[in-house]
Input
Amino acid sequence: MKAVFGEREAIQNRLHQIDQTEREIRRYFDQERKQLELRLAMMELPNAKKRAGSVKERRRSAYVEYLQEVIVAYLKEEKRPVRGFAVQQFVKDQTGHHIGNMSAFMNALMPKHEEVRKLGRGMYVYEKKVLSHV
Output
């Protein structure tokens, strides 16, 4: 009887490991896809001649938008409040980019992504708005 329980537990643990690995692989490919799409967008920018602003500014804003999407996806996946430092580390690990002033970066992100809220003292959370029927 004990061997069956041990085997069941081992199978459940392995299924959990497979689920985690699938999520990590999916996240990796999503990140790579976004990086490639960003690179394509950056390559096309110099060819668009009649746009306002410099090419460098457009590249920077495209990269900032990419970093914002990475952060929103991370917060959405976490489903719990996360410290700004943890978000900063995640961005550094995923993209290699260090965000110097996390508070300012998040203050710029929150108006664009209303699902992201600051809970206070560097804690951020993703909260999907639920529409109530009246």
